[in-house]
Amino acid sequence: MNQANPYQWVEEYEAKLADLKQKSENLTENVAAASATVTSKDGAVTVTVGPNGGLQNLQLGHRAVELGGPRLTALILETARKAQKQAAEHVLELFKPLGEGTEAYQMVSDSIPDDEDDEDTTDPYDEVDDEPEPAPAPPVSRPAAAAPQPAPVRGRRPADDDDDDDDNPW
Predict the structure, then answer these.
(1) What is the C-alpha end-to-end distance of the chain, expressed in Å?
(2) Among 70, 104, 107, 141, which is most exposed with the fewest C-beta within 10 angstroms?
(3) pLDDT for res 97
(4) Cα–Cα distance between 156 and 67 in angstroms, integer?
(5) Residues 6+ away with beta carbon under 8 Å from 161
(6) CA 104 → CA 1, 46, 56, 114, distances in Å?
(7) Is the pLDDT of residue 163 over 80?
(8) How many C-beta neighbours within 10 Å does residue 51 have?
């Protein structure tokens, strides 16, 4: 940049501003539409999340009913985590032209889990206890005759003669 020519400096500055404005508009449009959809390996669960990681859609396949509650829960959570990671990576890619090299970009990048954490080293079904929880015991009902009776109220014995009432006012 030639600092001796102020007109050239202003033109370059205006060009940078126009480029920044265009990148910002592109980011705004594309982030609003950014989402990720992931289907589990067995096809039982499909999860769609938005750019902020919020759940937008959940579809359960025919196999889902065969899994049982605990396994289905684990599979939904695992699939949602994968979709959230994909959405975050997509948003980061959209943000790259505008923010690469900035602290904001680094902060967003650091918040995305590493691939090492996302490896399928364990089956989410293995983490779930297959033993069903025992049903709660039914409440014990007592027959009406066995219900506890309130203790009798004991009062003051009646005085033998009325003269004693003057000495004891209560």
Answers:
(1) 108
(2) 141
(3) 79
(4) 71
(5) none
(6) 28, 31, 26, 18
(7) no
(8) 18
